[in-house]
Amino acid sequence: NAGVTQTPKFQVLKTGQSMTLQCAQDMNHNSMYWYRQDPGMGLRLIYYSASEGTTDKGEVPNGYNVSRLNKREFSLRLESAAPSQTSVYFCASRQRGAGDEKLFFGSGTQLSVL
Amino acid sequence: QKEVEQDPGPLSVPEGAIVSLNCTYSNSAFQYFMWYRQYSRKGPELLMYTYSSGNKEDGRFTAQVDKSSKYISLFIRDSQPSDSATYLCAPNFGNEKLTFGTGTRLTIIP
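^ Those are the sequences you sent over. The predicted structure of the assembly is below.
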């Protein structure tokens, strides 16, 4: 049981380059999330998808786009990377209404923008 | 004022000690109170979950919620080196926009 799988694990970009972070979950969860984690700032929600076909902005959506490709996959795109987007990115999923509100996280993508 | 305040540490304690980790929050509408543990270079994982004031115990871990003071605590008894991690509190409404504290980095010294 793989859980939440993120690719790539590490990435270095130059300012202005674009890239897509991939996320897939095999737990048949409805809700999926993208967070970024920065020192002293904690985990901040970028975008989320409450169900297949829907996406909504979180706390820090500027500079990002997302696609909920199907129930399993939720990708995060940086169209024109900036140094301020250097961070560790986590994808997460959960099944709402399961009673414990438990989020399952991937292992993260460490992104550096030079 | 941040919605959730958590001392970032770092906190170092000897093995076997009792550890107390704390958070305060500002929004009295929070209903669910969670603690996540995050090992270095890993994603967070749910450690404790409660939706009421009072104490909840799970092995060596006790989560305590005081809604009147807007104060959340996590106690670790008989701390072990394997408890060395960052602990994030997460008081929430039960909607999609989950809120996390900044995390407290804990080291248990053998």
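The radius of gyration of chain A is 13 Å. Chain A touches chain B at residues 4, 31, 33, 40-43, 45, 48, 50, 56, 58-59, 90, 92, 96, 100-103, 105-108 (CB under 8 Å).

Shout if you want it in another format.
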